[in-house]
Write a structure and sequence with these properties.
The chain has 293 residues and is of the alpha/beta class. Helix content is 47%, strand content 15%. A hairpin with an 8-residue loop joins β6 and β7. α2 runs antiparallel to α3. Bound molecules: 1,4-dihydronicotinamide adenine dinucleotide (NAI). 1,4-dihydronicotinamide adenine dinucleotide (NAI) binds next to α1 and α5.
Length: 293
Amino acid sequence: MIKNIAVIGAGTMGNGIAHVFAQYGFNVSLVDTSEAALEKALQTISRNADRQVSKEIITQATKENILAALHTTTAMETGLADADLVIEAATEHTGVKLNIFKQLDELAPPSAILATNTSSISITAIAAATQRPGKVIGMHFMNPVPVMKLVEVINGYATAPQVTDEVVRISRELQKVPCIVKDYPGFIANRILMPMINEAVYSLYEGVAGITEIDTVMKLGMAHAMGPLQLADFIGLDVCLSILKVLQEGFGNPKYAPCPLLVNMVAAGKTGVKSGEGFYRYTPGSKEMVPAF
Ligand code: NAI
């Protein structure tokens, strides 16, 4: 019976994951190396819960329960002591994740399931850093977590079927829709999304159409909520570039080679919403979509 959750990493994804588990009645320990990140996460969760209250998705009492169910700590051992399920949502860096999983394996109870929210790192490689590869699995939430329904459940080479069943069950308890996939580069979401974004960047690079036209074609023509260039800005152009490199290297197929324009933009620090400029310019307080070039 899963009741106690530890979330490692309190950034964009970690705070959303902690929020959703607390919303559905789990006890949540949120762990980060940075005290400031933990403080910011609690503020974000409170603000997002207020928005849910104003939209009548949750009641004020549920908001208070969410905040009461959350505990934050910078001490990994405290957060993990009685965890039934750990979800790692720390920085997307192989070295960082392998280190964290070694610690999780030592500190979490032997029965605990160790899940990672990685977008692109091999679940099998992460599992191999532990003595319990059968209990390691991918649980890939989408941003923003309280809103997006999908959980991509990724089976590593050694993931035990009971562990997959448990993660599917728990995802449904969170009112999410789990989809089980195998552990190959990009899984399904990014294997299909990133080449589409890359093709949109190539279309721009080759002058086939402008930024607004490319995004409008995909929004109105394909019923996408956002155009691929806007979505790339939202995800972060540095993140898109690094996932394309994982696909290119993982499959050894040049079709995944990142467009030189994407490479240049990242080198110039134009990484999208977080830097204030990518394919569009972002002014705080304004929702207007202004193409950057
Ligand atoms: P982020 O940069 O917002 O947050 C990462 C957090 O991890 C930071 O607060 C950092 O202090 C913390 N951290 C780093 N090392 C740590 C350690 N050893 N122990 C504890 N905390 C540590 O990153 P974000 O965007 O939340 O991504 C987290 C994970 O989720 C990554 O694996 C990413 O690929 C994945 N992901 C991100 C999505 C997105 O849209 N941002 C979507 C789906 C998955």
